[in-house]
Amino acid sequence: MPQESENSRRKTVVISGATGGIGRFLCRQLRQEGWWVVILSRQADMPADIAADMAVTCDLMDAGAIATAGVAIREACPRIDLFISCAGTISPQTVGVLDGERVRRQVETNLTGVILLTQEVLPNIAVGGRILFVNSMAGVFPLAGSAVYTASKFGLRGFARALAQELRPRGIHVLSVFPGSVDTPMFRDEMEQGGSLLNFMSWPQAPERAAAWILAAARGRKEEHFPSIIDRIFPPLFLCSPVFLRLCMPVMTVWSRLTRWCYRRRHGRG
C-alpha cells in the first residue's frame, strides 16, 4: 500500500488483465513513468515479471471475488487517476455448436465482470480521472465464428458510451480503444482454435507497440480511438449496409489470406 507521501507524488493506476500480452507492457510503461501500479489478477501471487507495486486477486467470473477486490482497492487507493480494463478472453465457435461454459466465460470476463469491477472502483476515481476500456475491432465489426465474443465486445462499447454520459458531469473521462490484431498468446491461441481469418486484415502488431498506442490514447480527449482512419470509417459502414459488407467480403478475404500466409512464413509455420 502506498504511503501518504508517495500518494501525493505519484499518480495511481489500476489495471485488470495486467498479466496478459498487452497488460504486461502497460504496467511496465506506466511504472517507468512513475505511476503507482495496482494490478488485478486471478493468480494469488504477482508474477515476477510484472512491473507493479501491488497485486489484488480477482476473478472476473466471480461476483463475490470482484466485490472483495473492490474493497481492497478502495482501501489501498483513496485516489485512482486511471482505471484500465484490459482483461478479455475468446473461444471461437460457430453458434450451432456453442458450449455453454465457453459462452459464460466470454460474457462474464469480457462484459459482466468488467461492469461490476468498474462499479467497484468508481467511488475512488478522482475528478479529472480516466476510465479506459481496451475493446476490440470485434466491438464494431461482426466476426463470423466468434459471435459470442462479438456480442460481448459490442456490449462493452455500449456500456462505455453510456457510462461516459453519466460521468461527464463529474469530470471523469471514459474512453475506449479498439486495437487491431495484437501478436499475443491469446491471439495465437485464437487462431489455433479457428479464429476469424479477418483478424489478418492488418498485420498483428507487437504488444509493446499496442501498449504505447493505448497510453497515448489515454491522454487524449476522444472517447473512441482506432488504429487507422480506415478502421474508424469502414466498420460503421458495414453495419449500416450489410450489402456493402457482402460486396467487400471477397476482397477482404483474399487480403487476409495473403497477410496470414506472410505471417506464418515469418514465424516458420509456412
Describe the model.
The N and C termini lie far apart (49 Å). The chain is globular. The protein has one domain: 3-Layer(aba) Sandwich (Rossmann fold), CATH 3.40.50. Helix 4 runs parallel beside helix 5. Strands 3-2-1-4-5-6-7 form a 7-stranded parallel β-sheet, sandwiched between helices. It contains 9 helices and 7 strands; from the N terminus they run αβαββαβαβαβααβαα. With 270 residues, it is α/β, with parallel strands linked by helices. Pfam families: adh_short. InterPro entries: KR_dom (IPR057326), NAD(P)-bd_dom_sf (IPR036291), Sc_DH/Rdtase_CS (IPR020904), SDR_fam (IPR002347).
Question: What is this structure's SSE topology?
Answer:
Blueprint: H1 4-9, E1 12-16, H2 21-32, E2 36-41, E3 54-57, H3 63-76, E4 80-85, H4 100-121, E5 125-134, H5 147-167, E6 173-177, H6 185-192, H7 207-218, E7 224-225, H8 229-240, H9 242-266
Parallel strand pairs: 1-2, 1-4, 2-3, 4-5, 5-6, 6-7
Helix pairs in contact: 2-7, 3-4, 4-5, 8-9
Which features does this protein show?
SDR_fam, KR_dom, seven-stranded parallel beta sheet, 14% strand, Rossmann fold, 270 residues, alpha/beta, oxidoreductase
